[in-house]
């Protein structure tokens, strides 16, 4: 299946070329395909904060390249570049709080820095590390797609209806996606009747990004408002909800795009299976439970305005952009290391001690 999956890779959102980071501006999609270039850590942090690049793995990969840009600038100047670099790490770490992939990638870069040998070029070493983070995310996507398809097939081998939320595809990762990667692979294997796509208020990652990616691959897709989920599960014979994650804690609780938790509650009520697909870089074994995850709250204007024009009453808005789904509502967490069914703390520790299987 690997070769077919590689052949199906089409969209890219992150490009490292000639020592510069290029990002496809996801705020403009699908109306315009605009690439923006970045050459400093501060500007990369701004791109993450302002949603030019979004999706947990893509944020981590971009931050790693941000460190490469930073070390190049710092080592070109006078003084203690290691100390100066700390400021860049901080600026990047402060860009968004919930997706742990950001902090995971920064830690990987920091650890590589600590392993520098005497006389080794720090810029070249960190560039190689960032490229390896990017490449290994692509590989993880391929492994997860295969595990996810096996899981779907194990429960039912006929074409089925799926529901997904937010965007977890090529735009959100270094490869062709986590949850969307599984759905792409399931389509190639003839297991998809239709994918229902939650609009995903307020940034519309579903209607703008996921629908665009699925149509590009010829996957039958239908858009629905987020609040149609219960009705969909009752009336359209949905077999699986398949979503990504921004942070998974040691007990298997999952933070993901706001609205994911209610989907899991609804899925349990309707007997619909619930699958979370995420690389191990999204798993934070330091946090015991989802109660400890910092949940990003963004500006109320994201709810009150469209294209900078106010349409809502003069009311205060509450805009948390992630929520936490408790482990006991999840049928399976699919990672590149393998699948955890009915997750709990013991199963999550066992998973994290495994080597990659694919
Ligand atoms: O606010 P966003 O668009 O960065 O949120 C993205 C999500 O919630 C995704 O589901 C998650 O990051 C997984 S992406 C493979």
TrEMBL record:
Substrate binds at residues 54-56, 96, 205, 256-257. It catalyses: 5-(methylsulfanyl)-alpha-D-ribose 1-phosphate = 5-(methylsulfanyl)-D-ribulose 1-phosphate; 5-deoxy-alpha-D-ribose 1-phosphate = 5-deoxy-D-ribulose 1-phosphate. The active site is at residue 246. One of its GO terms (molecular function) is S-methyl-5-thioribose-1-phosphate isomerase activity. Keywords: Amino-acid biosynthesis, Isomerase, Methionine biosynthesis. The keyword Amino-acid biosynthesis applies. The record marks 166 as: Transition state stabilizer. One of its GO terms (biological process) is L-methionine salvage from methylthioadenosine. Its EC number is 5.3.1.23. Pathway: Amino-acid biosynthesis; L-methionine biosynthesis via salvage pathway; L-methionine from S-methyl-5-thio-alpha-D-ribose 1-phosphate: step 1/6. Catalyzes the interconversion of methylthioribose-1-phosphate (MTR-1-P) into methylthioribulose-1-phosphate (MTRu-1-P). Also catalyzes the interconversion of 5-deoxyribose 1-phosphate and 5-deoxyribulose 1-phosphate. Part of a bifunctional DHAP-shunt salvage pathway for SAM by-products. Belongs to the EIF-2B alpha/beta/delta subunits family. MtnA subfamily. This is Methylthioribose-1-phosphate isomerase. It comes from Stutzerimonas stutzeri. The lineage of its organism: Bacteria, Pseudomonadati, Pseudomonadota, Gammaproteobacteria, Pseudomonadales.
